[in-house]
Prior knowledge:
By secondary structure, this protein is mainly α. It is built from 16 helices and no strands.
Amino acid sequence: MKEKKMTIFSSGLIWFGAAVSIAEILTGTLIAPLGLGKGLAAIILGHVIGCILLYLAALIGANTEKSAMDTVKGSFGKKGSVLFSVLNIIQLVGWTAVMIIGGARAAGAILNEPLGIEGVSLWCILIGILILIWIFIGIKNISKINIVAMSALFLCTIILSGVVFRGEPMAAEMGLSFGLAVELSAAMPLSWLPLISDYVKAAEKPKTAASVSTIVYFITSCWMYTIGLGAAIFTGQSDIAQIMLQAGLGLLGVIIIIFSTVTTTFLDVYSAGVSFVSITDKVKDRWVAMIVCVTGTLLAIFTPIEQYENFLYFIGSVFAPMTAILITDYFILKKDHSSKVVDIKNLALWAAGFIIYRLFMSIDTPLGSTLPVMAIISILCIIVNGGRKNAYTNS
């Protein structure tokens, strides 16, 4: 039986849903100290940097038709990639918990009092159950339900945008450098680097899906950041629930919150399953995804896991140098290290990149940390791995 593939339209819907999230809106509020003009410039520049890298990572998956963590074996070896699979699973469990608690708190702030509910546990459980339903339906069978969910989210976010940008903007209060704002804007696309190939490879036309997915994500993510930026500047609020209450959205706001949380977090738990399968295929990815969903839900209920600004920077420091090496090996050096057990040189380069990234965070550059660090690691990779042996194949 021929394997069912996703249409290009379905691929676009998935990445629209990935970008429409509370986390993206809240990250946009962090850029408000720059003011509207500089804030928008930082959002666009950061997304250009992040999404170019996202596209290149997607294109590797499209060309090889491998999952994201399987493509990493091309630079770090069969067992060397395990480190990144484990780190990816950990960050995805963390994202699952962050997204669930963020959605639960926002929904609770709007409806707890009218419904006579206390706390956020019930909202966490509801969101967790909806994510499990998405997992059960499966990535290749979710197109119809996604059309309905994404149409509703599209209309809701247009209404939210109209409400947010009414009134007069408040004066900017400096406290954030332009470079750090660019880095915050690049961080979200970077967080999807170790995931995007999982979905591109499942498309009917992987290369077209890589382009469409990146473009849709770029436009929608910039839009979400801008909503957050505008909310903080025009309403003085950084709490999404308060923004929606001020806007009088009520139940409509809860719909935005819950479904945006589900559609984004589904990708996290699904890719955690795919990453686990890249380590061992003895467990089905769907079961791992369900375990990650339940674990993330429990973490959301029982642990304080809401502060994620430093989490974003950590993701950048792990996956930016990893992707720099992967892109350099694949597109420039044309080298495939997947026949090795572990590629020590590339692991050492990655460790150097991790340290350099952390050092660059204390240096204010107009391009943030990601681009300079990746350029340095790419140059070092060319110097260390120069030559054209072990060429890549599409097998």
